[in-house]
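Researcher: Structure for this, please.
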Amino acid sequence: MVLVFSDIHGCYFEFEKVLSYFQKENKRYIFLGDYIDRGSYSKEVVEKVLELSPKVCLLGNHEDMMLRYLKFGHKSWLFPTNGGNSTIESFGGVENINTYLSFFEQLRFLHVEEFFGVKFLFSHANVLPDFPIEKATNYEGSYSEFLNDIGMDLSISNIWLREVYPLKGYVLIHGHTPTFNKKVGLYKVNDRIVDINIDTGCVYGGNLTALCFPENEKELSVCGGILVVNDKLETEVIGFESF
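Model: Predicted structure, token format:
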């Protein structure tokens, strides 16, 4: 099975609670970014993510802000609403964050997987219909270099975009925009789910929610579809017939 998390934002204990639900299963992991900031335990979250394997780790806007601060001195990361100072405190100083720099620099931009005939695109935020998915998935440089290459403004990129755009051939799985009702956001077109937002606002007092994708018929027979689990250990199922 594949566990998908987004927007943990330093909420280490909630993260551990969701992980504990799946202790006995064989797992892969996909993380959609925003491991850090606002919450008190960013270092612990990053160290836990590093322990887990195999995994795909994507870039969020908060990691991008942090990298722009560390490399170029951009100050937006330190604005109170962005929570960078909480991360600095958690790591015990900026110099200690540099120890983990290789992890942050290697975060990928997008990820694609197919489950039971449905192709899913994993991103931190929403994605424009004309976004170069293949190029983003395989890009080797930094995110700022990538945006320069494609001539796109950061504000409408896949780590910042909040508007929902149905994508041809993909169901989008993302975070970034808290739902605030503590439930995953399901966006439908013609009664078919085309977009799932799993940022349920944990750092704001909501839930930390993960998706669990079955990878074979045996796992599917147990859970019945994509299992949705939060840190209160409340569950629901999204059937593949919904796509």
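Researcher: Any notable elements?
Model: The chain has a mean pLDDT of 97. The two ends are 19 Å apart (CA to CA).
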